[in-house]
TrEMBL record:
Keywords: 2Fe-2S, Iron, Iron-sulfur, Metal-binding, Signal. This is Rieske domain-containing protein. It comes from Polaribacter porphyrae. GO terms for molecular function: 2 iron, 2 sulfur cluster binding; metal ion binding. InterPro entries: Rieske_2Fe-2S (IPR017941), Rieske_2Fe-2S_sf (IPR036922). Residues 1-24 form the signal peptide. Residues 47-135 form the Rieske domain. It comes from the Bacteria.
Length: 138
């Protein structure tokens, strides 16, 4: 009886998994290796927890976000669906594509927050050494 229940449960689990087929169309790698400093006047707002700054670079610009005073994340402002000529805007801890109104969370690795969006925002690695910031995908 336990084997039947286990088999039935695994069968349901197998068929309920969603396909990753559409994720293959997502833009994943954009070459970037950018060095900057938090003392740069352009980055003054990113010095405080919850603060952010827009940086030139990437495809449509880069959002640098200060998560908690020590940890930073950076995202390309290119709409993940690559269907928009405008850069994404940042509001309420979300990146927003103005062409299709899709949103992406900076707190959850650029995960889509809109039902019709499948690809996450492009996230870069951020390394901090004192006030020096390195944003890269290497």
């Amino acid at each position: 009886m336990i084997k039947k229940i286990l088999f039935f449960g695994l069968t349901i689990l197998l068929f309920s998994c969603s396909s990753n087929e559409n994720l293959a169309n997502c833009i994943r790698t954009l070459p970037l290796n950018l060095n900057t400093d938090l003392n740069n006047p352009q980055l003054i707002n990113a010095q405080t927890p919850g603060g952010h700054a827009d940086i030139n670079g990437g495809t449509k610009g880069i959002l640098l976000f200060n998560k908690n005073g020590n940890d930073f994340v950076a995202f390309d402002k290119l709409c993940p669906n690559n269907d928009c000529d405008n850069a994404m805007i940042f509001e309420n801890r979300l990146l927003k594509c103005t062409c299709d109104e899709s949103t992406y969370s900076v707190d959850f690795g650029g995960a889509p927050q809109t039902d019709n969006a499948q690809c996450p925002a492009i996230q870069y690695q951020v390394f901090r050494n004192g006030t020096a910031i390195r944003i890269t995908n290497f």
